[in-house]
Structures are given as C-alpha cells and as structure tokens.
C-alpha cells in the first residue's frame, strides 16, 4: 500500500473509490452514485489540488486500485486562508489497517509544515464512532454540532464539528 499525492491521471480511480465507499456506508455526503462530477472535471480538480499551496489530495493505492483518499482544502480568500477543511474515506475492506491514520498524519504534517495553516476543521456524523476515534487520536476536539446536517432516505443525521489547532 502506497500513500501519495493524486495527479490528474488518478481521476477515474478516485471517482470509483468514492462510489465504492459511498455505497458501503451512510456516513458520507454521497451514496453509491458517488460524486456528481465527470472524469474531466475531476481531472481538473486534482490538477488544481496538486498545484495550489494550501490544497492537498492524497490517495492510498494498493494493487493498482485507489482504496482511500484524503483531502485538505483551504480558503482562497485571505480572511479564510489560515484554516483548512479535511475529508477522509477508506474502502471498507481496508478498514482497521492504519490507512486512515496514515492519511490523516500526512494531511496534518502538510497543513502545518507546507501550507502554514493554523486551524484544521472537519464535519463527521455524530454516530460515526470509528472516524471520531480516529480524529480524537490526532488531537481533534468537538466544538459544535449541526443538527440535521445530512438527510439519507428521509432520515436526518446530526454532524459534529471538530477542530484542531496547529
Ligand atoms: C473513518 C475511516 C477513515 C477510518 O479509516 P481506517 O483505515 O479504518 O483507520 P485506522 O485503521 O487508522 O483506525 C483509526 C482509528 O479508528 C479507531 N477504530 C478502529 N476500529 C474501531 C472500531 N471498531 N470502533 C471504533 N473505533 C475504531 C481506532 O481509534 C483507530 O486507531 P488505533 O488503531 O490507533 O486505535 C474509515 O473507517 C472510513 O473511511 N469510513 C467511511 C467514510 C468515513 O466515515 N469517513 C469519515 C468522514 S468524516
């Protein structure tokens, strides 16, 4: 298993990974349909993420397949440029092998050492115990709650807002 920065060439595999993880859990903002973007749009997105200073898109690759992703997006407006938002998703078959931890460790290192950010934040479904344990392990604290953040099949779910200072 290798963790590396994504390039435009990973676009199809990244979208496939999103469809897979989206279909395996109801914790994400999309389901088995994946992200509503074309491969072309995803290519352009990954190119921009690789180029811009405050952005990072990582892939965990095994046997030629993308089995996990992590992203860091920071604000382009000067007043928001000190903070970054994180997203992580790992294929269910690979859970519990330390891949989420390895992705998050690299995002945090990059955010501090390369992007010079001061605050990291994320939103996580309040009953997503595995993800919350992962974030707490890396020093994130719950700072708020968004009631009814996500609606899946008529059921609404609360999300925790978590933050960590760098
Ligand atoms: C959350 C997620 C990224 C974790 O990935 P992972 O590769 O399984 O993570 P790791 O193997 O590094 O485990 C991370 C931590 O999860 C916790 N954990 C592991 N198994 C657990 C379990 N059964 N119950 C609760 N917590 C558990 C542990 O704290 C573990 O750290 P430790 O092994 O050092 O104790 C992954 O489960 C996932 O992608 N889930 C679906 C999408 C998602 O929820 N993304 C987060 C959206 S905010």
Description:
- This protein has 166 residues and is α+β, with helices and mostly antiparallel strands.
- It has a single domain (2-123), classed as Gcn5-related N-acetyltransferase (GNAT) (Aminopeptidase, 3-Layer(aba) Sandwich), CATH 3.40.630.30.
- Helix content is 31%, strand content 36%.
- It has a seven-stranded mixed beta sheet, with helices on both faces.
- β2 and β3 form a beta hairpin.
- α1 (11-24) crosses α2.
- The radius of gyration is 15 Å and the shape is globular.
- The chain starts with a strand and ends with a strand.
- The relative contact order is 0.15.
- The model has no long low-confidence stretch (mean pLDDT 97).
Gross morphology is: globular
Which hetero compounds are present in the coordinates?
Answer: coenzyme A
The N- and C-terminal alpha carbons lie at a distance of 28 Å
In terms of DSSP E residues, the strand content is 35-45%
